[in-house]
Each structure stands twice: as C-alpha cells, then as structure tokens.
Amino acid sequence: MPKPEFIPLPGYRQFPPEEMKRRAADFYEEIKKRRTVRDFSDQPVPVEVIQDAIKAAGTAPNGANLQPWHFVVVSDPAVKRKIRIEAEKAEKEFYNEKAPEEWLNALEPLGTDENKPYLETAPCLIVIFSKNYEETETGEKIQHYYVKESVGIATGILITALHHSGLATLTHTPNPMKFLNKVLDRPSNERAYLILVTGHPAENAKVPDITKKPLEEIATFV
Ligand code: IYR
User: Fold this and answer.
1) CATH fourth-level superfamily of 36-201
2) Nearest atom within ligand 1 for CA of residue 106
3) Cβ of 105 below 6 Å from ligand 1
4) Ligand 1 in reach of 171 Cβ (< 6 A)
5) 147-164 vs 17-31: helix crossing angle, rounded to 10
6) Ligand 1 center to residue 13 CA distance, Å?
7) Which tens digit of pLDDT belongs to each residue from 135-183?
8) Is the CB of 172 under 6 A from ligand 1?
9) In three state form, how does the secondary structure of 53-106 look?
10) Protein residue with least CA distance to atom 8, ligand 1
11) pLDDT by residue (tens digit) across 98-133?
C-alpha cells in the first residue's frame, strides 16, 4: 500500500459534557432495544438500507487497514433455499450428534433447534466472509492481520446500523459453514464467518425474556 498523506482529523466534533452524556444515554436506550429475532416476516427491505449498513460495517477499525472481509447479500429465494437445506443438514448433525450435553443445556432456554425456516422467510441473508489473505491479479499473496477481531468489529457495526434503520437481525452460525463457499461461489481464501439473517420481525414475533448483566458485573473502573 502506498504511504498515505496525513491530514487533519476529518469531521471530528467535540460535544460539551452535558451533551456528551445525553448522547451516550440516548444511544444506550436505542441499542438496548436490539434483540435477536428468530421469527421474521417476508416483507422486503430496501436494498439501499442494506448497502448503507454494509458501508458502515466497512468503516470498522481493522488490521493494517487491509479490510479482510466480504459481504454477500442473498435475496434470491432459490439461493436462500439452498442455504437453508445445507444449514439444516449441518445443524441436524450438530443438535443430534456433535453437540456436547453441556452445550445443548446452555441452548435450552433459547429454544433453538435444527429447523431454520427464517433462512427462507427473511428477505435478506447477509453472509459475512473473512479473508486470511488476499491474492493480487499478479498472484502476489497479501497476508491479513487480526482477521477475526476485524471481522467481529465490522459485524458489530453492521448489526448496529441495521438496528438503527429499524431492521431485526439474527446471527446464525451453522456448524460447519464450508458449504457457503460452494453455494455462493466464493474463493478459497474466504471463510464464512456468520450469516446475518435480516428483515422485519414477524407480527407475532416473540423473544425470550432474558436480561443482560449489570454494569458492575461486566466492567471494572480502576
Ligand atoms: N448454531 C446453532 C446453535 C447455536 C449456538 C449458540 I452458542 C447460540 O447462541 C444459538 C444457536 C443454531 O444456530 O441453532
């Protein structure tokens, strides 16, 4: 990568403390309404919303600014169907054979199982791929760094952006996910990271009545 010029921080705004506190509190009020949804309606979503959310995800801090990610947006019903069939195959094995008892017990309160109808019902599946390296047109291999961390942060921003637009999401990780390279025709340097099921919640969508740990439990101020 050529050495960039250094420029004054673009678009930075400092807020007076009171305004800063209000903004922080407002954002918490907004983001705490995000819930993982498993009942989706088939109502379509504007592609511009998905495009802007992915652009937001693409601003994530990442290793050496090599941006080790690729997002595949699936709305074609035939492709969604293929993904559902393969995911349910993998999940059937997970729930019935591979998952240790302790893991199944941990999942019990969430009521998940091998059936994944939302992979077809939801209008949009965003399949996130991580890239451990990149190959240039001349065949040169460019190593990527902190790939999992980078893609995790980008995914967090993507979820936040979609929530901010009024869409619901579900992070789905069929195990294993190798089939996604084949179904979506992605190259071997890409590895499926997760499927972000995206859309509007079904009218009667229900979520488990669970809580988040309080601040004292998740943070220490020294
Ligand atoms: N991938 C499976 C199992 C699963 C695992 C965890 I950890 C969850 O928080 C939820 C589900 C599935 O999607 O059902």
Assistant:
1) NADH Oxidase (3.40.109.10)
2) 7
3) no
4) no
5) 90
6) 40
7) 999 999 999 999 999 999 999 999 999 999 999 999 999 989 999 999 9
8) yes
9) HHHHHCCCCCHHHCCCEEEEEECCHHHHHHHHHHHHHHHHHHHHHHCCHHHHHH
10) 107
11) 999 999 999 998 889 999 999 999 999 999 999 999
